[in-house]
Amino acid sequence: MPPGRRPMKRKLPEEKSDKKENVFDFTQDQKELSGSEDEVGQGESVIMDKIAKKRPVADFEDEDGACPVGNEVLTMMEKFGADISKVMQTKKKRLESLTKNYMKGSQQKLEQLWSNYHTQRYAYLFQVNFVKPFIEFLSSLQNLFRQQQKVLQQARVVQNQKLKTVRELYEQFMKNIEDMEKSHSVFLQGAQQELKKEMATLQKKILMDTVSRLSSVVFTFYKLSQNVYCCIWSADVFLLEILAKVVFIHSSHLEKN
Prior knowledge:
Belongs to the XLR/SYCP3 family. 90% of the residues lie in helices and 0% in strands. Among the domains are: 12-104, no CATH class; 197-256. It is mainly alpha-helical.
């Protein structure tokens, strides 16, 4: 062993095994976070291959001390840390991409749920604010329409009854008119007959009065004519002829009437 160097203790393999166990535990935790088992398995296989390529600590202890064990352990740990940092960066990028994709999907789902909630709320509000009042308005209109139908039916019944009464009154009026016409015609016939009788009696009276008056006139004129002989005689004859013609014309006229 060269001077100035402290001998390595036998606890290094245990620490190395603990570090290996910590590495595997870390990959298992990253496996649970990433959610893709194939990529995690590939990362673990790469790490195990690199660890297998490294020289174990027991080989360094079995050697005579030709190469420094501490430097090689440090370089091995640095390489192992670099590999872990690379794996961590890849896992970090993968995790970021997965979280971004998950956030996008979750945001899309949230937007879809929000839009569905808005549509359902709008439908509910539309149903509450418009559909229900419209249904109530339609029901009220139906009730009013039914009431109007009942009123119209009652009005039709009343109108039919009034029409029947009007028809009956019209028929009664026409019968009364016919009876009145018949009675009027009978009355006119009786009045005409009575008028004819009265006219005949009146004509007879007038004729008798005219004859009596003419006879009195003729008699007076005859008395006067006896005093005058020549002129009066001719005048008497002429007057008698005229009187006879007047009586004949008057009698013929009365017979025609």
